[in-house]
Amino acid sequence: MRSTKLLLFLVISLLFSDAVNGQCKFSIIYLKTQQDVDNFPKNYPCSVIEAEISFINSTQINNTDSLYKLTQIIGNLNLQNADNLQSLAGLRNLTKITGKLNISFNALLENLEGLENLNSVGELSIIYNESLKSYDGLSGLRTVTGQIIQFNNSALTSMNALNGLVNVGGTFQISNCPELRNFPKLNNLKSIGGWFSVYEMANLETLDVMPELTNIAKFINIYKSPKLTKISGFNKVTTIGESLSFHDLELLTELSGFQNTININKSFSLYNCFALKELNILKKLNKIQGAITIQDNNSLQRIKGFSLLKDMTNNTLTIKNNVNLTSIIGLANILANTFSGIEIKGNSKLDTCHIKSICDFVKVPANNSKIIIEANEASCTDINTVKLKCSVPVLTENYFDSQLINIFPMPIYDKLSINSPYQFVRYEVKDISGKLMSNSNLQPDNNISLGHLHSGLFILTLYDKSGRAFNTKIVRN
Fold first, then answer.
1. What predicted TM-score, i.e. pTM, was given to this entire model?
2. Are 155 and 178 in contact (CB under 8 A)?
3. pLDDT for residue 439 is more than 50
4. What integer pLDDT is reported at residue 1 of this predicted model?
5. Contact (CB, 8 A) for 157 and 135
6. Level-2 CATH architecture, domain 402-476
7. Nearest to residue 238, comparing CAs of 285, 279, 171?
């Protein structure tokens, strides 16, 4: 009997000691009424609680004032279906939630003020809060170790409180927030461990984001936002872990950014972007490990950028039903042996398919490769026409700024000189039929002797040490 009393005394003492030291451990704490909240300091006299705390179907709760002692939750905090909850001010001392912060189906909650000291959460879920207008209150949040999911917050107009975020360990997703017009810049965000997805945002107009982001582990997918006119940012991202996709963006007129992306580990797609006239991103992209699909973009006229892309790792190139497209020069430097197939179809104004990559591929296609070239403008109407056009000097995308390359005199007589900041190491001269007339390494003085040429028009190609080519026409007098 004495031993039983002693054991009970020790257990009570241990529990009391934990409370005094500020940490308590429970399984689940349900708060269903305002009285439950008001009694919280007495029932759970700890600043650090290891438990799941849930306001679920708590229609009688309107404030969190009595939770002021909480500094850390080792577990989840669920604020769900608390239809009369209007204030989170009682959480003002909370700094960390190791599990999920779930704020959902709270009909009267207009902002998140009271969470200003919250620095880190395991996951963040904000969904179906019909009166939530802003994320004000999350300005101190720096780290989300898991995902951020946001959708169906029908009154949301500002997410700017998230601009302090530095790391997101999982997915960052937002959809169906129809009153949000401008996405936060997220100036400090450096890493996303999952995908980044923005979709079905009825009134979103601009997406100029993440200037410091260096890592995106999965895909970037932006689609079905009919009023989005501008996408830019992502300029420090070097590798996209999966695919990059833009589609069903009817008013998109500006697509920029991705200035230092060199690898895409899956595919690239652009379709149903009806107002975009020029595709001029991914200027440093070197390798893509999936298909490229550019389709049904009614106003698209030029495909530029992509000028350093060499390797498609045995995948297909599809350029289809872009009715105003006239130039695909940006895709000229892809190595032909990295295609598995090409489809260039239904681009009714495209007259120049004879770019280097396409010419090399149709000349020696890979085994079992698919080649569809049809329903384009005259010089690109079928594969035989393209092969014929490929018999003359073909087009390549210039990596170089022609305004910085001075070739003189023009017309030339016995020799020409090159003045340029670029370090060219080799040259070729061909006549207009494609016949090689001269080639050699460039001398240190950048002069080329051409006295042996007859009068006429020629194509001069200059190569740098990486094999990048600059083409220009020259006239021999």
1. 0.81
2. no
3. yes
4. 46
5. no
6. Sandwich (2.60)
7. 285
